[in-house]
Amino acid sequence: MKVLSVNRALAADVHVNGRKMRSAIGKRAVNGPVAVRWLGLEGDEQADLSLHGGLSKAVYAYPHEHFSFWQTVRAQAQVSLWDEPLPHGTMGENLTIEGLSEDRLWVGDRLLIGGGTGCVLAVSEPHFPCGKFTAAMGFRHAARMMVQSGYCGAYLGVLVPGWVQAGDAIGLQPGPRDVNLRDLFKSRARA
């Protein structure tokens, strides 16, 4: 289990369904260590704080294992080529991770990232797609496909600020194991 990429963006104007709005979904990978603060990564923004950000949604992690699915459905929707890889950050995630899919995560699990100057993050809730995600993916059924697949990723709260960088190992410290992340996502998606 490790961090493959650390991604961030500043909010900028985007067009969604003919309307101009602010978004920081266009995250891009950065090199070197990045500070993790109580409200997220240094140099990263969330434009709509009613949906993203805050103490419980400071960092968004997304499993790299789902990228091939999105590459395929984008090609089927004819918005990209079949062999066109998705860059890390495309899902709007701060951390592209490997080895920790939603079915392996539970609310309250702790992710111990990096060594002595690393950080500790806690799984707080699943991420839900919005219209900005659909616009970024380039086809109108993207949010529906996230709901159907359950490939939502995890919001994380910061328990111990520190530093994170690509290549950092992730240790998993189990929480109470009462609520599985994928089950919670599916339950809320049906409501």
Key attributes of the depicted protein:
191 residues; M1 Pyruvate Kinase, Domain 3; alpha+beta; 13 strands
Choose one word for the global shape. globular
CATH fold title: M1 Pyruvate Kinase, Domain 3
Strand content: 25-35%
Number of strands: 13
Multimeric state of these chains? Answer: single chain
Poorly predicted residue ranges: none
CATH superfamily: PK beta-barrel domain-like
The residue fraction in helices comes out at 10-25%
Question: How does this structure look, described?
Answer:
- The protein has 191 residues and is α+β, with helices and mostly antiparallel strands.
- It has a single domain, classed as PK beta-barrel domain-like (M1 Pyruvate Kinase, Domain 3).
- The protein contains four helices and 13 strands.
- It has an eight-stranded mixed β-sheet with strand order 4-1-8-7-11-10-9-13. The chain has a three-stranded antiparallel β-sheet with strand order 6-5-12, with no helix packed on it.
- Strand 5 and strand 6 (40-41) form a beta hairpin.
- The longest helix has 10 residues, at 67-76.
Question: What layout of secondary structure does this protein have?
Answer:
Blueprint: E1 2-8, E2 12-16, E3 19-23, E4 28-29, E5 34-37, E6 40-41, E7 59-63, H1 67-76, E8 95-98, E9 110-113, E10 119-126, H2 131-137, H3 142-149, E11 154-160, E12 162-164, E13 170-173, H4 181-190
Give a summary of the structure in a few sentences:
This protein is an alpha+beta fold and 191 residues long. It has helices at residues 67-76, 131-137, 142-149, 181-190; strands at 2-8, 12-16, 19-23, 28-29, 34-37, 40-41, 59-63, 95-98, 110-113, 119-126, 154-160, 162-164, 170-173. It has a single domain (2-190), classed as M1 Pyruvate Kinase, Domain 3 (Beta Barrel), CATH 2.40.33.20.
